[in-house]
């Protein structure tokens, strides 16, 4: 399989290299536009398709870079290559500032804000004297590479498509890396990321700046290819066209950026030739034709061109991917096992029996409802403690309080001697408190291996640049080895490459435990880990949890399956109506009349 793909890629590259000799200037100019459009759309595939943040303002970043380099090379007479550095810096800083102001906005407010800043920046270009107002800047110098002038479109073609190929490669590496897994998890919500010690806002901000940088690179190429800039190619219409490219090509795949740019620009050119034959209002009709095409696409092919093209292949590839692949390979992509690498460093565990977690007078109010009412208990290192109680007793709320997913209304929380009340969830996770969720939070379209690898986020360091440039491979191998080790531990090692979404719900809960273990925790907080498991699976889970306790890990769990809990835990804390009912050994709790009354005999 690898050989035919390699041969196809080599043939495509040879054809691309030969094209300037085979086709006319018009086609080359169109291909240059496609390459530049694809760079912008690539950023949008990352930001919108994979990261879930829609931007209607991407053309503004293209404009910032285009104007920056145009101004520097015309007004200041500096080299366009210095212009590239200046353009990327300015685009990156602008994206950082805009992102810091807007990325915390939730729901529809973020896309709305992108329209606002997209419009304002385009208006700014038309009103600044030094930028030539609406007339723009002309006589921008062409690029030179060594002694070679890139003034001709045929020469620019090679630069544009080389940069596009490198950008695609960069993004491919990025997505199969530590920061890439965090980016791919953004759609799972901030809580999922925080539970592995990552800050969703920072991940989104980094992604926003990365996407803007691709737009910046495109803007720089645009300025020195056309040798003229004016405000209109960077306005809201252009932004919508870039978004259309990304959607039409397929927001879920990097190749969608290229396919979408080609589709939109070829269609646009075709319509520009065709429509004037039938009407004098070709411009308006073109907009209507595009709108109709867009609606049809959303109805019939949400995955865009590449979604359609790869659907059959994906269906075939899925079951096969699950077989016989062992990790150790970066990204879990390759089949052959690699030699073991130095394991990730582990944190020291506290001495068995030492105080680990203490909850003092915890209160949580939701408006008038007191979900947790003055609850106090402690957990010592190396024990398994169960938190039980009837439905609605406040157990999950208590879990959310002690993992800092929710803020306390009153009370104190200490973890390893530190006051953690008021800390961010990601900070507490970094201290060694790992959790699973009552309503499973996994990335269904990521492999089991990648889902577990996400757990090691806070133990590792690689950022976007290192990952995109593939300088993170040693660390990545360590992460993959750790993820595979945890998968083997829960008995899912052979299924490492399957999609998490293909697992039954009960098994997904177990997968969450592996992800939590990959964080190398001190305290494991499990919300209903046995729900949905068959008897044999429950026995295996109990065995695993006992083994973990044997290794010195501390476990706090909420569970409704009394048989499972009673045979597993060292101590129980029972809650009812938000308050603590009693605390004690399983035998003492089982014998307590108040507990039996609370459960209305469900423990019999
Ligand atoms: N975000 C919220 N806003 C308002 N009320 C909430 C919220 N979260 C929980 N509650 C309420 O707090 C109470 C305790 O809920 P919680 O989910 O903590 O109970 P639980 O013991 O975990 O129940 P179960 O075993 O059914 O999961 C319930 O009455 C619930 O409706």
From TrEMBL:
It holds the Pfam family BCA_ABC_TP_C. The chain crosses the membrane at residues 35-68, 80-103, 109-128, 155-175, 205-223, 243-267, 287-309. It is a multi-pass membrane protein. It is found in: Cell membrane. Its main location: membrane. Residues 357-602 form the ABC transporter domain. GO terms for cellular component: plasma membrane. SUPFAM superfamilies: P-loop containing nucleoside triphosphate hydrolases. Keywords: ATP-binding, Cell membrane, Membrane, Nucleotide-binding, Transmembrane, Transmembrane helix, Transport. GO terms for molecular function: ATP binding; ATP hydrolysis activity; branched-chain amino acid transmembrane transporter activity. The keyword Cell membrane applies. This is ABC transporter related. It comes from Verminephrobacter eiseniae (strain EF01-2). The lineage of its organism: Bacteria, Pseudomonadati, Pseudomonadota, Betaproteobacteria, Burkholderiales.
């Amino acid at each position: 399989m690898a050989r035919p793909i390699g041969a196809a890629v080599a043939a495509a590259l040879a054809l691309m290299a030969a094209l300037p000799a085979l086709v006319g200037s018009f086609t080359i100019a169109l291909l240059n536009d496609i390459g530049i459009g694809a760079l912008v759309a690539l950023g949008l595939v990352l930001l919108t398709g994979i990261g879930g943040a829609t931007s209607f303002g991407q053309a503004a970043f293209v404009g910032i870079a285009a104007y920056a380099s145009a101004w520097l090379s015309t007004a200041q007479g500096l080299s366009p290559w210095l212009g590239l550095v200046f353009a990327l810096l300015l685009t990156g800083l602008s994206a950082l500032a805009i992102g810091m102001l807007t990325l915390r906005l939730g729901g529809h407010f973020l896309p709305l804000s992108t329209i606002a800043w997209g419009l304002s920046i385009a208006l700014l270009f038309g009103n600044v004297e030094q930028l030539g107002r609406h007339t723009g800047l002309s006589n921008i110098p062409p690029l030179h590479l060594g002694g070679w002038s890139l003034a001709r479109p045929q020469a620019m073609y090679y630069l544009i498509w080389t940069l596009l190929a490198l950008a695609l490669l960069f993004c491919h590496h990025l997505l199969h890396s530590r920061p890439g897994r965090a980016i791919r998890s953004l759609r799972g919500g901030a809580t999922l990321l925080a539970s592995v010690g990552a800050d969703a806002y920072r991940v989104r901000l980094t992604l926003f700046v990365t996407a803007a940088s691709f737009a910046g690179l495109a803007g720089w190429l645009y300025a020195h290819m056309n040798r003229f800039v004016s405000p209109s190619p960077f306005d809201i219409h252009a932004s919508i066209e870039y978004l259309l490219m990304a959607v039409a090509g397929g927001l879920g795949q990097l190749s969608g950026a290229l396919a979408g740019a080609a589709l939109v620009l070829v269609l646009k050119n075709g319509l520009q030739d065709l429509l004037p034959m039938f009407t004098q209002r070709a411009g308006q009709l073109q907009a209507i034709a595009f709108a109709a095409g867009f609606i049809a696409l959303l109805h019939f092919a949400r995955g865009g061109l590449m979604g359609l093209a790869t659907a059959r292949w994906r269906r075939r590839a899925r079951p096969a991917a699950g077989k016989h692949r062992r990790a150790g390979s970066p990204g879990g992509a390759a089949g052959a096992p690699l030699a073991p690498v130095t394991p990730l460093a582990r944190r020291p565990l506290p001495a068995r029996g030492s105080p680990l977690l203490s909850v003092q007078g915890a209160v949580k109010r939701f408006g008038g409802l007191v979900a947790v009412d003055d609850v106090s208990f402690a957990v010592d290192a190396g024990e398994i403690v169960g938190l039980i109680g009837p439905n609605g007793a406040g157990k999950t709320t208590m879990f959310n309080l002690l993992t800092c997913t929710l803020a306390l209304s009153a009370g104190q929380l200490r973890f390893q001697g530190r006051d953690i009340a008021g800390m961010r969830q990601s900070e507490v996770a970094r201290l060694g408190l790992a959790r699973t969720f009552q309503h499973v939070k996994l990335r269904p379209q990521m492999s089991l291996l990648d889902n577990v690898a996400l757990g090691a986020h806070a133990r590792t360091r690689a950022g976007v640049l290192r990952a995109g440039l593939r300088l993170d491979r040693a660390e990545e191998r360590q992460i993959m080895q750790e993820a595979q080790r945890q998968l083997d531990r829960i008995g899912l090692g052979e299924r490492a490459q399957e999609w998490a979404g293909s697992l039954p719900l009960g098994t997904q809960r177990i997968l969450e435990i592996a992800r939590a273990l990959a964080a190398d925790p001190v305290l494991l907080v499990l919300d209903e880990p046995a729900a949905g498991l068959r008897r044999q699976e429950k026995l295996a889970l109990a065995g695993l949890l006992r083994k973990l306790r044997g290794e010195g890990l501390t476990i706090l769990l909420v569970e409704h399956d009394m048989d499972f809990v009673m045979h597993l835990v060292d101590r129980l804390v029972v809650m009812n109506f938000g308050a603590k009912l009693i605390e004690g050994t399983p035998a003492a709790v089982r014998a307590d009349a108040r507990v039996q009354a609370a459960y209305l005999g469900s423990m019999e």
